[in-house]
Amino acid sequence: MARVLVVEDDPDIAALVAHKLRSAGHEVSVAVDGEAGLAAIRADRPALVVLDWMTPRMNGIEVCEAVRADAEVSDTRILMLTAKAQEADLERAFTAGADEYMQKPFSTRELVLRAQSLLART
């Protein structure tokens, strides 16, 4: 269906998210840090990025801002998936350009539904 990139440094969460999205019919790749994620976004042009906030080398907010500032990939849909749960965190993510925000722990069913909803908008 769609190309999806998961940027997540926790291997168990990355594997779970990738598995659920593949089961929903998507082509999924994984990057383990923000710099690798941004490089993959620019090289592979995924339709959707599932982006953790707290990633090494470049955090998810920095990745989100870099994507929105790059005209070549600025239309990429971004679903922020994070343990950060304060209202100010949510505001910061949307200000940086996130299209959707989910908190960990999360429902895999809800994750797939939100991903499908974002992809339907592209």
Structural commentary:
Residues 3-119 form the Response regulatory domain. The modification 4-aspartylphosphate is found at residue 52. The structure is a single chain. By secondary structure, this protein is an alpha/beta fold. The chain has a single domain, classed as Rossmann fold. Helix content is 47%, strand content 20%. It has helices at 11-23, 34-44, 60-69, 87-96, 108-120; strands at 3-7, 27-31, 48-51, 77-82, 100-103. Helix 1 links the parallel strand 1 (3-7) and strand 2 (27-31). Helix 2 (34-44) runs parallel beside helix 3. The radius of gyration is 13 Å and the shape is globular. The model has no long low-confidence stretch (mean pLDDT 97).
Number of helical elements: 5
Structural class: alpha/beta
Strand order of the largest sheet: 2-1-3-4-5
> What general outline do the C-alpha atoms trace?
globular
SSE series: EHEHEHEHEH
Helix content: 40-55%
The gist of it:
47% of the residues lie in helices and 20% in strands. The chain is α/β, with parallel strands linked by helices and 122 residues long. The protein has one domain: Response regulator (Rossmann fold).
